[in-house]
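=== Structural record ===
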Amino acid sequence: MSLRNPFRRADKPELSDGAKAPGGISGQMLKSAVERALEAQAPLVAGHITKIRKGKPHAGPAEVIAALNKKYMIAVGGTGAAAGGAAFVPGLGTAASLATGAGEAIAALNASVLYTLAVAEVHGLGIEDVERRRTLVLAIVLGEGGTKVMQKATGGTHWARELSDAVPLPKLGRINQTLVRYFIRRFAMRQSALAFGRAMPLGAGAVIGAVGNVVTARAVIASTEKAFGPPPAQWPDSAPALTGG
């Protein structure tokens, strides 16, 4: 039996003047989770890159990004497997796995934020403005839909640099409303599908949790490649030094 990708959707987010951030408890909680992830992970970016560079002192940007990709997939695959593995607990397995699903989803979100901001840093785009960081992360995590929105908004194929240099903040507010609205709908649907898959007994939940999260991670990695383009040939001046924390 093949594992169907629960993340594929035909509809794409459309930029609209009337776009509003979704309400409701779940929507507000997810919005808060995004904000907390941005706040918590941004200070860790330089150290994350420096740790990789210390282990690979002669690595160029392309090799460091490859290491970031690997670490990211291992991190989200591990959290998915751990949540699904809770189904092994006799009698309480399914309930335990479903209960840990929300925490696992937040862990995966934090990993996605750290990964995205780290790739931006390697490309010399350490984005300080919170609104621009929010746009970058949401669009990349959304995958193809977010890419299309940002390519349309910036007019660029590799849109991350245009986001940093050219898009005015008032326009970003409207873009973020669209992205947040679509992100909440997509994220809830993804996690619902994976939560029930992870809760399957006899080890199937651990496999589905890991595979589902790796599928998501690969989509995020593909989005960063489209957003930033090829890695720089050499380290930009803004890259974290090997002596950094």
